[in-house]
Amino acid sequence: MSVQSDAPQGVEPTHFAFDEESERQIAAILAKYPPERKASGTLPLLYVVQDQMGRTTGSAWVPRVAMDVVAARLEVAPIRVYEVATFYFMFNTKPIGRYHLQVCTTTSCWLRGSDDVTAACKAATGISNFGETSKDGLFTLTEVECLGACANAPVLQVDNDYYEDLDGPRTHELIEALRRGERPPAGSTTGRMDSAPAGGRKVLVDDAAPKPQGQG
Amino acid sequence: MVKVTVDGISVEVAPGSSALQACEAAGKEIPRFCYHERLSVAGNCRMCLVEVSGGRKPVASCGFPVNDGMQIFTDTEVVRRARRAVMEFLLINHPLDCPICDQGGECDLQDQAFGYGADHSRYRENKRAVTDKYLGPLVKTVMTRCIQCTRCIRFSTEIAGVPELGGISRGENLEITNYVEKALTSELSGNLIDICPVGALTSQPYAFTARSWELKRTDSIDVCDAVGTNIVMHARGASVLRIVPRINDEVNEEWLSDKGRFVVDGFRRRRLDRPWIRVDGRLQPASWQDAFATIATRLKGVPGERIGAIAGDMCDAESMLALKDLMEALGSANIDCRQDGAKYDTSRRDFYTFNTGITGIEEADALLIVGSVPRQEAPVLNARIRKRYLAAGRGGFPIAMIGAPNADPTYAAEVLGEGPDTLAALAAGKLPFADVLAKAKKPMIIVGHGALTRPDGQAIARACWDLAAQVGAITPEWHGFNVLHTAASRVAGLDLGLVPGPKGRDVAGMLRGGVDVLWLLGADEFPTDQIAPETFVVYQGHHGDAGAARADVILPGTLYAEKPGTYTNTEGRVQEAFRAVMPPGDAREDWRILRAFSEVVGHKLPYDTLEALRARMAQASPVFGQVEWSRHGTSDTTAPQAGKVAVSNAPFRPVITNYYLTHAVCRASPTMETCSGVYVHPAIEAAE
Question: Could you tell me if the ipTM is greater than 0.95?
């Protein structure tokens, strides 16, 4: 049984303040809400926190002091921010590695070989179980539910990027590239465009096909 | 009104009512866990399922609005099966630890499982376990028992106004917590114990003390503040084991302050249970006869004007009247019930009571608080202000405070300033809030003892009255001038005239040798070190505190739990408390002590029974003969006397510096001591 708790002793920073980049983002976010409804900014601001932590410390997580800062900025009780931050799995309430590997293992991806992706992730990073961080501190492996990329299954989400149509070897390559500090282009790893059919167009291949009639 | 049929019974309910309320109106019991009539509707326990005409499936009645002609069925097979299923789900993760659970015997889950549940469990998997949370020294948590009804979250957010509890994580991992392992910063946190329908939140000091069915229940009145909260004393044998609130919508709804609830373990500690006489500087145990004889001997030859009496903050009206009668018989006009030195014009009752009434707060549309911190001085009344504040919506109930700049009142209040100069500026219309008050139809002004206990207290009361009259707060329909008392005995004392008579001395006048013999009736909250060394002090009271330490003769009196008594709250509402337990040792009811002593000095008081004394009380002040208290206005806007001291511009100081240690009983209570360490002096605690 998993028990929700704060970050381990000594890891929780004593202080958090938004940097300039974050302040720019916050100004844009809060402009969307009426002042008395700015509590709606909780989710985007938590993302701002997580991004800033990733940018400045190499570990994209949301420490509790930062939740307090968000609460103060939005003039809500801190517990309201704690509730949101712990409700969504997208927010890491404990430190993670430089790269957050999120393997989808829900039905479509599983049928299309997510077990191979998982195995490759573990082999390439030395992680033995989901939820762990590699010894070098670079990778954290998480099992996630459906990411909505079923047409491109199996999918691995690295931080905010989707890498699709993976198999074991390509997952391995991807992780090695990340280790070298590269960021391969996101999307399908087989070269197909978005969710277009693998191996080129399957319909409307005849150039003489009639043009659509009317405004359809 | 909307016409609804519940199981064939036709009822009319207000539009917007819920199906559950309609069922209650029809006299049908609907089981529930998350629904609480004083909290917002959550609708997450699903226990209140009923069938509604035209509906395909059962609906949660707590959140289902009625409409005209609706038919509700509360006792169909579908409903019974639905309740049984909900109960089974709730019990999946609930431990079977009723035999060691303090809620056992008064547990909603237990009762409803018995009434509506299945007879056995089909669950064979592992149960979920949850780590216990720290919520402070008063509320004990066993979170595995929690069924996540979220009543505690809603209570702390809505009623207490300290949004510190929440539900973190989700699904099976949902936990109720404050996330930070800090004590709840509310003076109403004890009510969490009452609203928790299971044994997740129970009373820490009362843990494993007694079973609910062993307890004898006695109706009483809380005297820890002047709200007059209605309480029930739960006693077993000779001890009161716990105090819980009693529902009175006019006063406390169903809440009780932490002090009033947890002071109970001070009842049997540091008690004065036998008379004592000071011999050669040391207190020696004595008999009642010797104690009376010693006082009588000392009184011989002392003229009336050299005798004085001070009544304390927790006295019942009966004993105060007996004290006054005794002093009059001894020829003394030196009597005072205002230990804190507060000043009032007592010529009219509405000069010193909370005239708007506690229910009146819910109609007010603007509030000015002068020299008071209601959250500390009257937490339950403060909850009523917050209730009004929430009901009125954004800006609907503007509140301003003069004084107490750092207090968090649990509602948005504009701090206008800190001293009487701000009050003057307000009266002169120089502040924007003057406009708010003037435009309000039912404005309220609360004057607290941060203002009234100053030398210029009467002048400030006068200024507040004038401001109230000026903004139209004093009309035949509405009385917006309110004095918020902190002492439970004060209004009764003033009603009975426990103030110095002509040429009489007040508390300050009786100190420093102002009198030769001083009778203290449970009076500990005044500078006892200023009593002149040659003054002979009689302390009549229940706890060994400041007054008893200085006494030459100690007469053991009774606590509010040990005597039938009459108390008048800050509104002027007269309420009766009954005896829950007998006093310890040789202690006696206070009025009987005074009556017995009067005979020794040859001025026998003219009452031998409580009934006779109460008849005399009604004679002394007609309010004691009235059963009902009602809200009132006045057409007489004549202002109270301003007193002789001109207003100074010193800022108002809060009268309570340590909420948990304001009187002798809570100073004897280990729980209150702990709370003081946790909440008021955390630094000292940490250093130790």
Answer: no
